[in-house]
Amino acid sequence: MTQFIRITIYLYLAYMIGGCAGLPEHARPKKLASGKFSMADAITYRRLARTDFKGEHHPSGRDERARATTCLRVQWRIDEQSVQYEYAESEDGGRVVNVKAKNPVFQAYMDRSCSWWNPKSTGLGQFYLLEHEQIHFAFYEIAARRWNKEIDSIEFQIKAGDQQAMRQDMISNINRFLEPRYAALNKRNLEFDKDTSMAYRPKKHKRWLDTVRQELSALGYLGAASIVSDCHVDEATRQAIARAKRLLPESNYHESMIRLIEQAEAYLEPPDCYSAKARILAERAVAMARNSTFPCQVTVETRQAIDAAVEAAENEFGQAEPLRLISLAKNAIKPPECDNVRARILADKAYQLLTEK
Hints:
With 357 residues, the protein is an alpha+beta fold. It folds into three domains: 4-218, no CATH class; 229-290, no CATH class; 300-355, no CATH class. The protein is 45% helix and 16% strand. It contains nine helices and eight strands. The chain has helices at residues 126-150, 163-196, 202-218, 235-247, 254-266, 275-290, 300-314, 320-332, 340-355; strands at 4-15, 42-43, 68-79, 83-89, 95-102, 105-111, 116-117, 153-159. The strands form two sheets. Strands 1, 2, 3, 6 and 7 form a five-stranded antiparallel beta sheet that branches.
């Protein structure tokens, strides 16, 4: 037998999909098709970045409703020198082997070449999506570390035969031994998705994040405090972003708010780590959602042009067209139009009509 016995024990697709209630079948954790997971670009547990999602297409090849899909697995290995064999005779007179595989080693991996980020993903922001996939990865790391602590050996009986047949029989028995643990890992991922997917739920997300940080720390992972970002993000900034996202669905300025929120979250990632700027942008998005007369960006020149037209109109009577243009210019600098250039053109035209001799 080879020096190490290796096999993939479970593959998981972590979906992050928004837009509907509940958790549909396509959003549930799934086993990855055989051969899809590659160790060529696999990484062990660490903080994820957007660039870790290198897949050009969704791993299924067809379902692209996900916002991000992470290909994860826990792999076990057993040193051949730690396996004990004891040959015996079965009840029917055949030969069997009692096997004791000691000190199995478990390791969590993410395949970056398989993991995929939807280029059309908008609305929730990169920071939130990365946090979601990070928690899924943490579940696998936690499982691997716990199994390393809890499983000293795996014992089973196989039929005596040629080396290849015995090896396959060993693999099957080890998988059967681990099945309840696979099921528990899958259940936890599913519970997390049911609790947090399909909508923006920052409070629930933070509870899960705090939980995995505590578990990783208890299991000896030294980087548990920074599994999402190396930046310090104060609570006021997190709350401002959360408020903006809660108000987003009812806002009349949906696209503008999305841009502000995504810009805010970008500042929370290295190398910027600019929490103060992120908070300013998030609070601006909140103000935009709550105030139907949220000010647009208007240049001094445009305001001066409108004021000049209004002053000229005070000395002229009976000119309906300039007054109409002034009204249009004033409306143009209000939401949702916020068209500074058009307002300036209208104001200049009104002033021209009022001052023509």
